[in-house]
C-alpha cells in the first residue's frame, strides 16, 4: 500500500500543471500527416458556415508565443509580459506557441492544426521559461485582458490550491462578458485544478480519438471534453509535434467556442445542446464540445 501511494505521488509530481513533463512527443504517423482527427471530431459537419464578423479576441495566458511563425504571428494583435510588466514576451518554453497553433487556422502540408482563421490573439506571458507560474501573474494577465476587451480567456494550465484573489479576477472578467476557458488538469483523476474549478469558468478535460478520457485527466467539476490525446501542434521551430494533455483540449474548446461567438452565441446552453453526451458528468461533463451548422 505504501509503495502504491509513493508511486502515485511521484506520478503527480511528473504530470501536474503546465510542466515540461505534461506532454508526450513521438514520430508522426501517416494518419497524422494526412489529417487531424481532432478537427473532424469537433467540427463533425466538415463544412463550416459562419456569417462574416469581427475577429474573435482570444487571450492566450501562457508561456508566450513564438513570433517567427508567420501563420501564427499574423493573428497576434498585442503582447504583454505579466511577469515583468513589459510588452515583450519571452517564449523560451514552447507551450504557449503550441496552444496558439490550435487557436488559429494553421496548417503544415496536409495536416490542419487550428480551428478558425477569424481570431485575434492577445499573447500574455504568465508562465516562465520552465512553464511555471504564480497566481499573482495570472491575475495581472486577466486584468490586462479585461482592459483589451477580449471575448475569451484561454488558460491551458492550473493551480492545485484555491486563491481568493484569482477567483475575484475571474469573477470580474465574467461580469464583463468574457468567457473563461481553463484546463481541468493532469492529475490522475484527482480533483479539478483552479481556476477551472470555479463556477464561472468552463472546465475542459481531454479525450482521445475513440472519445475515451485521458488517463491523467482531473475529475470533479468538468464542463466539457475536447480532443487532447496525441493531437498535432506546431512547436517553436515551426514543425509539427504530437502532444497530449488537458491544456491542448482547452485550446480546442476555446477554438470551437470562438465559432459559436462568430455565429452570435447568446448563452452557454447553445454550447451544451451542441455537445455529444459521452458519460459520467464528473468525468465528461456535458460531453464532447462540437460546433455543428
UniProtKB/TrEMBL annotation:
Highest taxon listed in the record's lineage: Bacteria
Keywords, sorted A to Z: Hydrolase, Protease, Serine protease
Domain Peptidase S8/S53: 56-275
Record flagged with keyword Glycosyltransferase: no
SUPFAM superfamilies according to UniProt: Subtilisin-like
Record Pfam families: Peptidase_S8 (PF00082)
InterPro entries: Peptidase_S8/S53_dom (IPR000209), Peptidase_S8/S53_dom_sf (IPR036852), Peptidase_S8_subtilisin-like (IPR050131), Peptidase_S8_subtilisin-rel (IPR015500)
Active site, UniProt feature: 62 (charge relay system), 95 (charge relay system), 247 (charge relay system)
Family that this chain belongs to: Belongs to the peptidase S8 family.
UniProt name for this protein: S8 family serine peptidase
